[in-house]
Amino acid sequence: MTDQHPFEMRQPDQDYFKGVLLTVVGQAFSAADYELAHEPFQWLSGRYRFVKALDDAWHAYIEFQVLVYTDNAYAAGMPSRFRVTLIRSDRAGGKASPHEHYAKRTLSELVVGDFGVAILPSADHWWSFHDTTSLGNALAEAGHLVVGYGMPWLQGDLSPDSVPPALDKD
Fold first, then answer.
1. Could you state, in order of their start, the residue ranges of all structural domains in the chain?
2. Hey, which of 17, 28, 51, 92 has its CA 20 to 30 A from 42?
3. Contact call for residues 145 and 107 (beta carbons, < 8 A)
4. Rounded CA gap, 121 and 125, in Å?
């Protein structure tokens, strides 16, 4: 019998995700002035947030939420998964704001739903993984979309309204 809390027993899996996350996207995010928020209690639940200060006390957040599945009677063979949420807020910690420029979207909702780019299976997409290679590939795909769509959208430099409609092939 162990005296560890269930969160503590899963912590090595969370730390592993964090290590691979920083290896795959850390340098690109850092170059764009995003830094990993030091939120160890959130890390216990699998949430990792990169933060960037914007103008006029606004902040941009890129949030990775991972669900790590371990082999047991309830989740045997289930792949682990993560999703990415983008938040722009004038409130501490990215809390919801009544301000018209407050925004919160999942990355897949932004890319597939708002921009109409069908690069992901749906606007409600979770990236799944079962080993280091698949985790690295999934983080690389999500990281490319964050840099290409998420960061410019968070900064207000890109919006679905600013993208010209696709040209007809007729």
1. 6-156
2. 28
3. yes
4. 7
